Amino acid sequence: MEPVFSLLTGIFLTIAIYLMMSKFIIRMLMGVVILGNAVNLLIFTSGRIMREVPPVIGPGLDVPAGPVANPLPQALILTAIVISFSFFAFLLVLSWRAYSTLGTDNTDEMRVAEPDGTPLPPLGY
Amino acid sequence: MSVADLTFLALLLPFLGAIVAPLVTRILGHNAAWALALVPVAIFLHLTGFSAEIARGEVVTGGYAWVPSFQVRFSWLIDGLSLTFMLLISGIGALIVLYSGGYLKGHPHQGRFFSFLLMFMGSMLGLVASDSFLMLFIFWELTSITSFLLIGFDHQREAARRAALQALVVTGGGGLFLLAGLIILWNMTGISQFSLLTAFAPQVKASPLYLAALILVLGGAFTKSAQFPFHFWLPNAMEAPTPVSAYLHSATMVKAGVYLLMRLYPVLGGTPAWQIILPVFGAATLIIGALLAVRQTDLKLMLAYTTVSSLGLLVLLTGFGAPYAIEAAALYLVAHCLFKGALFMVAGSIDHETGMRDVTRLGGLRSAMPLTFAAALASAASMGGLPPFFGFLAKEEVYAALYAFDGRAIIFAALAVVGNALMFAAAFAVALKPFIGKRVETPQAAHEAPLLLWLGPAVLALMGLAVALLSGTVHQLITSPMASAIAGEARVVTISLAPHFGVPAALSTLTVLLGIGFYLRLARLRAAIAAALAAIGWGPDRGFDQAMRGLVRLSCAVTRRLQTGRLDIYMTATFTLLAVVLIVPPFLYGELARAPVFPQDIPLHELAIMAIAVIGLVAVILAQDRLTAIVSLGIQGFSVAVIFLLYGAPDLAFTQFMIETLAVVILALVMTRLRLSPSDHRPLRESLPDAAIALACGLGATLFLLKVTQAPFDTGLSDFFNQYSKTIAHGANVVNVIIVDFRGTDTLGEIAVVMIAALAILSLVRLRAGSLRRIADNDPDAEEASR
């Protein structure tokens, strides 16, 4: 099953990167959301795929009864989902603020920090 | 404490003194000079304890392991050469500290000045005491850095800042050449200590890398010792307060290059390359320095250029390779330290007492400043090579070394005579002109300098006389061991004041007569040189400015090219690099994944959900308006959640469902608040390259993941968690147990991240639009104006 997941991860990553190279912030934000999913799938696939058997120990047992899905990548992804959501929320509010201050969501027009045509630095000592 | 420990302490003492200097100055005012002068005096006394051993031709070494894994030691080598230097540095250093006490009396930063001065002294002592290459290099660069601080002491003037930066760039840059040269020597021989290197001299000279090592070492020595065409930083360094000029340009900084040449003479010296490069550059520096000295009217600048000239003579002698040349270099070096230090201090005293440094606007000071006048005359006589001063002995020895009846010797001897005659004229222009003749009005009414200001020049001038009178003892204790250490074999210096006739004496007399002639026609000579310089119009000093400006322009252009300030360019660059990193190495190193085997038995519902995910993704890109795109974003997110659910990860699925719902709702809410242009698609000429880069990244990730999953899998960690989550942590859901128990600290960090993000969001939401504009405008001038 891993080859199918590898392909799926590649498609997710392609779309995410294409969106992040846009000049418009809303599109970049969508790219960031998809990038989070792509990376989660990457971690999930590297831990190998197993169908339908969650890593839960049945009642009365000390260890899982048979082979179960790998719990480690799941724990990592769980953390990653939450963090990427906080990140996304922060970026969203930041771009909203940027829009309400600068009146644009086009990154080409956001030139307050690095304006075009700044003069040469002083040539003296 | 053993002698070695004391020596180590002596090397550290100036730095310790530098730490307490500001405090001492705060308590004692300018009289702190008396207390701080004890530092160099103590070092001087400690060093004199070695003089008996050194006079017997012995060598004192010692040290401690510093970086043992690289065989780097903090080790010192005290022989005739380094002892002479250390005595000069500490002895003249003590006088300079006293002189600065008077010169900068009442200056608000006098304590800082003492601190810099002592740091410089410590660096210089460390430099000449170093046995290991790396220690020499570190102290070498430390002298560059501390001299930068000293030259730029008056940092509110642009000229001082420029001079400081110039000295740092030229000498610090030369230090890098030196490092490369020393590393080549180290590689060649496997030896990183000067005391052991001499034995490998034949091997070094025969090596094919000899010339490279020599040129690199000379790059360091010539920049430090201001040889033409790197001479320009030295006169500019006259922007420093006069005590600095007197110290750096008589006994210390600029002599470091000469010291290095002398130290490496037994190893690198004596070859044809050495005997061509050094005399040629030395003679050029000698003549150019002397001509430029005569051209100046500023007392300090005249002395600065004669220093350049003297350094040229020293380099010429070190490289000349005739009998007596090394002895002459040793004698002249000591003599130069004494008379040049005194003359600089005299120039400073005149400046301090009259407020005027221009020699054409000074006169008749002899009655007002008799002690200074006496010290000046004695030093100038030594500099001009008149008996009975030490400079006379040095000059006799110089001519004894240079004259011979072959073409090369005749040319260099003639150049030396002209250079020395010009220096003679410059010396008396500094030491005689301001004192004789009619009294000229000066900005301040002239009167004798205070004790702290005349003590230094007087002591040094008297030393110039005493050393000559007691030449036998001095040769035994100082100059003979020094010459032996330079030459790497026993040498005995014998020259004394006793009259002796011959070609050297004749050349000496010729020099004096020529010098008197130059002195009498000084004004005409000055005008002629000024006209010649104006005709040339360009010099390395202007070249330095042009180079620095070019550097600023270049770095500005490069920065603007790389840091355009446009986010999409940064993004494109980042992802292009990602694509290259993912795709190129597997091809280069033959690590490509094997052709994948796709399973044939995938149930239909799994295929369907994956297809829905892909459809959602494509819809995000193709959607005509933003709202459709956001809804499609939800489709791919929920599909991922279902995939997690199908493949044994229900916890992930639940979290994903929640997060995706929130993300879509918030994004839609925010988006509807903004009044955006209806479409935000990019034109085809942008979308095609972007799509190519994105596809390359996706392909690379797929190949990478295929390769990873084809490798054998280590289940060690997972087995551990499965085995112990019930028995140790008492939880049935292994994923939850990992999160809250085994990796609990990670989760704590995660919660902290969420909290910080929430705080940041809160503050961004609550900021009023007006207040944000003021933050964005961080131009201090505008802020000042708005207040």
- The dominant shape of chain B is elongated
Q: Might you state the CATH topology name of chain A?
A: Helix Hairpins
Number of domains of chain A: 1
Average pLDDT of chain A works out at 87
What does the main sheet of chain B amount to? 2 strands, antiparallel
Shape of chain A: elongated
- Spatial sequence of strands, sheet with the most strands of chain B: 1-2
Q: What is the assembly state of the chains in this entry?
A: heterodimer
Helix- and strand-based class of chain A?
A: mainly alpha
The most extensive interface between chains reads: A-B, 96 and 108 residues
Number of helices of chain B: 35
- Please mark out the parts of chain A with pLDDT under 50 across 5 or more consecutive residues, or reply none: none
Structural category of chain B: mainly alpha
Give the terminus-to-terminus CA distance of chain B.
64 Å
Residue runs with pLDDT of under 50 for 5 or more positions of chain B: 782-787
Number of helical segments of chain A? Answer: 3
What's the alpha carbon Rg of chain B, rounded to whole Å? Answer: 37 Å
CATH architecture of chain A: Orthogonal Bundle
Relative strand content of chain B = under 5%
For the record, the CATH class of chain A is Mainly Alpha
The number of strands of chain A is 0
Family (chain A): Belongs to the CPA3 antiporters (TC 2.A.63) subunit C family.
Protein name (chain A): Na+/H+ antiporter subunit C
Organism (chain A): Rhizobium herbae
Membrane topology (chain A): Multi-pass membrane protein
